[in-house]
TrEMBL record:
Full protein: residues contained: 99 to 249 of 249
Subcellular location: Mitochondrion intermembrane space; Plastid, Chloroplast thylakoid lumen
Name of protein: Nucleoside diphosphate kinase
Residue ranges occupied by any Nucleoside diphosphate kinase-like domain in the UniProt entry: 1-138
Main location: mitochondrion
Taxonomic classification: Eukaryota, Viridiplantae, Streptophyta, Embryophyta, Tracheophyta
Ribonucleoprotein as UniProt keyword: no
Source species: Salix brachista
Family, per entry: Belongs to the NDK family.
EC code: 2.7.4.6
Length: 151
């Protein structure tokens, strides 16, 4: 099954939204296979967001991202990369639909509380950046046969 990297940013953690955000992924039917709480260094933030290094907001983005604890997670499930982005909503919370995480819980683009991988390649790269292989837990959940059906 597909896997994606999801991070609750320092603003999401400080605002007490960890369980609110996690429950949306969990109730959808996605499976948590790795999780840690960590304060990323600025250097690490720059690695994580390296695609954006030419953007004007890059330095501020990396400052905010390294300003406090982040919840780093890997979620697994059919279509989780694309659908995870749907659950998260548009980058700018002013444009995110109600019902999405950013639409319901955030107001401005620089404080949009959550990150999600934007494609299969970035998902693989980000999971490798944040987790050692042995930190990913392979297990089957009882719900899977009800979520996906068997035979
Ligand atoms: P992530 O899931 O965090 O990667 O967001 P995204 O994929 O929806 O957007 P993108 O990768 O383009 O940008 C990464 C992050 O940079 C966003 O989540 C915002 O926090 C921040 N960002 C993007 N555009 C702007 C901007 O115009 N101004 C500011 N201040 N921040 C921005
Ligand atoms: Mg992005």
């Amino acid at each position: 099954l597909e896997r994606t990297f999801i991070a609750i940013k320092p603003d999401g953690v400080q605002r007490g939204l960890i369980s609110e955000i996690m429950s949306r992924f969990e109730r959808k039917g996605f499976k948590l296979v790795a999780i840690k709480i960590t304060v990323p260094s600025k250097d690490f933030a720059q690695k994580h967001y390296h695609d954006l290094k030419t953007r004007a907001f890059f330095d501020v983005l990396c400052d905010v991202f390294s300003s406090g604890p982040v919840i780093a997670m890997v979620w697994e499930g059919e279509g989780v990369i694309k659908y995870g982005r749907k659950l998260i909503g548009a980058t700018d919370p002013q444009k995110s639909e109600p019902g999405t995480i950013r639409g319901d819980l955030a107001v401005v683009v620089g404080r949009n509380i959550i990150h999600g991988s934007d494609g299969p390649e970035t998902a693989k790269d980000e999971i490798n950046l944040w987790f050692k292989p042995e930190e990913l837990v392979n297990y089957s959940s009882n719900a899977e046969k009800w979520l996906y059906g068997v035979n």
